[in-house]
Amino acid sequence: MGATDEQMAEPGAITAISVVDSSRLSTFVISILLIVYGSFRSLNLEQENREKEKDKTNYNGFSGENDGKLMESISLSTVCARCLSSSLRPATSSNRRNASVGFDVQTIDTCQAMFLPIAASVSLLVMFLFFDSLQMVFAICTAILATVAFAFLLLPMCQYLIRPCSSGQKISFGICGRFTAAEIMSFCLSFFIVCIWVLTGHWLLMDALGMGLCVAFIALVRLPSLKVSTLLLVGLLIYDVFWVFFSSYIFSTNVMVKVATRPAENPVGIFAKKLHLSGLVRDAPKLSLPGKLVFPSMQNSSHFSMLGLGDIVMPGLLLCFVLRYDAYKKSQLNSIEAGIPQPINTIQKITYFHCSLIGYFLGLLTATVSSEVFKAAQPALLYLVPFTLLPLLTMAYLKGDLRRMWNEPFINNQSSKLEV
């Protein structure tokens, strides 16, 4: 998860040119675009789920048979959400409630937020100690997850391309569910790209698969409140700092960097070796697993920037939460039940999403400057969490939304409405 900035350039004084290197500019632009796109995909999914809930209510008015047909329709986002939820514990009561009305998202609760840094530490330690024994398992599981996530990323494009020649009807695949032609097309394209990545090991394909994982996680995993967000991000900040700065004192090496940069044996090469296909064994490249985004420099071939997916996904979950809250608050102000709107001052005009997005940019910039100053890997969450969380908490306090955002921001206060 820890973002690192690896470089093999000669040491020297920091310059503005080195900070705005093409690899770092790519890191800035791509990470921000992934967060914005994933957040709006999540908001769009929420609107679609509301429509599904209304449709289900209408179906319940007819017969149980129609309701059964509605519930047996499994979309690609459902499959992707179930794959992503395998890294979390079984669905909570809120997740079950969401699933019953057609929601395809996984909600992190307080216990999960406290447990995730510990689980991430255990996973990192297992990959560090037993990587040679389990590298084939890691490669296969990563390829499967990346296939589904990248299909989710390609889905809107496939829907746009296939819309003129498709009726939108779903095709049944038995127990696997029913999928539209666009979902089948996106999955086939994703599978094809993953196969090319396995055969070539090209860094650009690895980055593409990593982008799909980022968008899928941000869009399909949600934080329910500011309290859960704070617990999760602070816990991951401690996790990131420990494994980047202090792991070398225990294991004589930087565990985070070692795991992030360690290539895995190609499954094709392993199978070819067992089948005694010497030519295929020699041609199969080692795979750098898509747990990070790598951007080579155009100015210096020996320099590259590397950003862990967790440094995009975890702050992205917070930005997705505040974007949903901004949309929710706007809908409340525009509704008839909101009553007479209060005068809007300058602070009220600034949205939480814009505030947090600017904070993320400044945090990433600070992490980049720090990596250039110290010429060493930096835990990006050490800078990203304070720059995104502290301005958000301050603005929520000034706007008077802190108490509501901290606990249950999306639950209407029915009692207050009855009193009015």
From TrEMBL:
Name of the molecule in the record: Signal peptide peptidase-like 3 isoform X1
Pfam family, one: Peptidase_A22B
Topology of the protein relative to the lipid bilayer: Multi-pass membrane protein
Keyword Transmembrane helix recorded: yes
Stated family: Belongs to the peptidase A22B family.
Source organism per UniProt: Octopus sinensis (East Asian common octopus)
Localization (cell): Endomembrane system
PANTHER family reported in the protein's UniProt record: SIGNAL PEPTIDE PEPTIDASE, SIGNAL PEPTIDE PEPTIDASE-LIKE 3
